[in-house]
Amino acid sequence: MLYHTLLILSSVVLSSCDVSHLQLQEDHTTEPPPPKPYVFSYTAGRYPGHADRQHTEVSDGSGVIRGSFSYVDPRQKVRTVDYIADKEGFHPILNDAPPEHPADSESVAQAKDKHYRLYAKIAEEHAHQPHPLGDSTPRQSAAVALASAKHAQLFKVIAEQHARIAAEREALQREEEEKQNLQELGH
C-alpha cells in the first residue's frame, strides 16, 4: 500500500513541475563558438614496446584537416597514407604504391595454359553443337543403381509400416469413439 501511495504522490509532484525552461528556443541569443584548431597523435602496438600503427591529425579550425596514418601490412611492410579531409570529402594520398601481383611459378603457368586450352576446346565444341545428341540424361553407375534399389526397398518397407500403424490408430480411435457413445447412452 505504501508503494502505491508513493507512486501516486510522485506522479502528482512530477506533473506539477514547470518544465517550460527545457523547451528548445527558436532564437539563439549567442553565436556558436568559433572552430578551434587541434592537433593529436598516437602510436599503438599489440604488446608493450612494440609499435605497429600510428596516427597524426592537424586541424587549423577552418574545416580543413590534414593527417597521416601508418600500419604494418600482412607482408610486414609499413604502409603510410597521408590525407586531407575538407568540405569536399576525404582525399587519401598513398605514399607507396601497392605491391605488384607475384609472378606465376612454372607449374602455375603450365596449369593455367592447360586450363585455357581445355576451355577453348570445350567452347569450340559447344559452338558447333550446343546440345548433345541422343539421350543426355546421366547414366547411373552400378553402385548408384544398387543404392537406389536399396533405397526403394527401404521406402516400400517404411510405407507399409506407416500404413499398418495408421490402420491400427484408426481402429483404436473407432473403438474409443464407440466406448464414448455407449457411455453417453448409458447415462
Report on the architecture of this protein.
Strand 1 and strand 2 form a beta hairpin. The mean pLDDT is 82. This protein is flat. It is 44% helix and 20% strand. The chain has a 5-stranded antiparallel beta sheet, with no helix packed on it. With 187 residues, it is α+β, with helices and mostly antiparallel strands. The longest helix has 45 residues, at 142-186.
β-strand number = 5
Percentage of residues in strands: 15-25%
As a percent range, the share of helical residues equals: 40-55%
Oligomer: single chain
User: Strand order of the main beta sheet, please?
Assistant: 1-2-3-4-5
Shape: flat
Q: Give the biggest sheet.
A: 5 strands, antiparallel
Structural class label:
alpha+beta
